[in-house]
Write a structure and sequence with these properties.
By secondary structure, the chain is an alpha/beta fold. The chain contains 16 helices and 15 strands. Helix 15 links the parallel strand 12 and strand 13. Helix 5 packs parallel to helix 6 and helix 11 crosses helix 12. The structure holds nicotinamide-adenine-dinucleotide. The site of nicotinamide-adenine-dinucleotide has 26 residues, from helix 1 and helix 5.
């Protein structure tokens, strides 16, 4: 099948590559000339495990092409996936200008039947708008607009696309459903379901999924904070509740709050949709509020530990991306934490295995960067752990102790055992667990 993907970001690039991998001819188009030039040289603008090799292979075999000629890509494709960004407007609603711009272009270039697939995360009713815009430009009704929200996770995006838990197809058209089914069949051979529903419900499903996940995170963070105040241990509590199958263990890890390009903006956008519809969503607002508070938690801990003597201190910070296995720093807790520390006059020296270039775009020379995790510790007064990269899980603690001026660790991801840290002689703060102070 000839497939066009408009918008070659995390989602468009992964989806386009995976669609080519199963034999389709894919043309991936973006208005970002720099990005397309890079991709044409088989270099990828993002970090995603396994993606570079897959792009190289499919490009070499001629199934995956990149272009800035969006009109041509539309004309050459039977199926067009819209995967452009839908960032937040200032009021929290979704900015749909890119989606509408692509819809107009599709309308201008429509000839013969085309299936338009909205993969971007868009508020309920956007499919209707896209349909209207295409109709207005083309004066034709020879097309269908389907909602096909994407659930891939950065860091495991290829696997998520190739073996999705489920595929959602929102359409009232049997023809559109049949084509979509054909496209997705290769990825659901283990019987994971393709679920058909109406378009509005499909649009809503994506927001509800992300809001549920964000709610779980804020919930466990709130419980962790209560544990801290009453002298309980959230790890024990987590085990205590997780074996109840109605609750489970997944996505119930306390930490420094959620970030990334999806949860914050999607919870905001759904909250906004709720307000507009008259169904004021109290839980969604609380989820965001708790998350913001949690992002500031590590700074509060640092402040409390050092008291008034903060100005001029140096803090090492491990982990900048919003989660491991990605270089994405959009809405990353590290940003809030670094800004909070700098406001206190603290010098920050940071390290991340892949997100250093992103951090340099945000902070420039306002902070220092280590070539490796240990280099950040030299003459630092303490270490803050923000992202739970695997390489931080079993470090050389003796070396950490030797390099730090004071053996203090603020662990925002609970990656170490408090009793081990006590034995190793650290002052150890974590989330929702008793503080360890080996010197007391
Ligand atoms: N990143 C994720 O993990 C993820 C997961 C599921 C769903 N989503 C959703 O998918 C959508 C895309 O997200 P992303 O993370 O890939 O975004 P992104 O910002 O990485 O990429 C968006 C791309 O669209 C391009 N673009 C913008 N306007 C354009 C236009 N008018 N014409 C052509 N190209 C244009 C940009 O240049 C950019 O390359 C969003 O709605 C997002 O919420 C993202």
């Amino acid at each position: 099948m000839n497939i066009g993907v408009i918008g070659v970001g995390y989602v468009g690039l992964v989806a386009g590559t995976c669609l080519a991998e199963s034999g389709n001819d894919v043309i991936a188009a973006d208005m970002d000339e720099g990005k397309i030039a890079l991709l044409k040289q088989n270099r990828i603008p993002i970090y995603e495990p396994g993606l570079e090799e897959l792009i190289a292979r499919n490009a070499k075999e001629g199934r995956l092409k990149f272009t800035t000629d969006i009109d041509q890509a539309i004309r050459d494709s039977e199926v067009i996936f819209i995967a452009v960004g839908t960032p937040s407007n200032e009021d929290g609603s979704a900015d749909l200008s890119a989606v509408y711009e692509v819809a107009r272009r599709i309308g201008k270039n429509l000839a013969g039947y085309k299936l338009i697939v909205d993969k971007s995360t868009v508020p309920v009713g956007t499919g209707d708008q896209v349909e209207e815009l295409i109709k207005a430009e083309s004066h034709s009704t020879n097309f269908d607009v389907v909602s096909n929200p994407e659930f891939m996770k950065e860091g495991t995006a290829l696997d998520d696309f190739m073996k999705p838990d489920r595929v959602i197809i929102g359409t009232g058209s049997d023809l559109a459903y049949e084509v979509m089914h054909r496209i997705y069949e290769p990825y659901v051979r283990t019987e994971n379901p393709i679920i058909r529903m109406d378009r509005r419900s499909a649009e809503m499903t994506k927001y509800v999924a992300n809001s549920m996940l964000a709610t779980k995170i804020s919930f466990i963070n709130e419980m962790a904070n209560i544990c801290e105040n009453v002298g309980a241990d959230i790890d024990a509590v987590r085990r205590g509740i997780g074996f109840d199958r109605r609750i489970g263990f997944q996505f119930l890890f306390p930490g420094v709050g959620y970030g990334g390009s999806c949860f914050p903006k999607d919870v905001d956008a759904l909250s906004r949709t709720a307000d507009q519809s008259g169904a004021h969503a109290k839980i969604l607002k609380a989820v965001q509020e708790v998350n913001l508070r949690q992002k500031r938690k590590m700074v509060d801990k640092v402040k409390k530990h050092y008291g008034k003597h903060l100005s001029g201190l140096a803090i090492a910070l491990w982990g900048l991306s919003f989660k491991p296995k990605t270089d994405d720093m959009r809405e990353a807790p590290a940003i809030e934490i670094i800004n909070g520390l700098m406001e206190l006059g603290v010098k920050v020296r940071a390290y991340d295995p892949v997100a250093m270039d992103q951090a340099k775009k945000i902070f420039g020379d306002k902070i220092e960067y280590g070539d490796n995790p240990y280099q950040t510790l030299e003459k630092a007064n303490g270490l803050v752990i923000v992202t739970e990269w695997n390489e931080f899980r079993r470090p050389n603690f003796q070396k950490i102790r030797q390099l730090l001026l004071e053996p203090v660790i603020f662990d925002g991801r609970n990656i170490y055992e408090p009793k081990d840290m006590a034995k190793l002689g650290f002052v150890y703060y974590s989330i929702g667990r008793p503080t360890v102070n080996a010197s007391k």
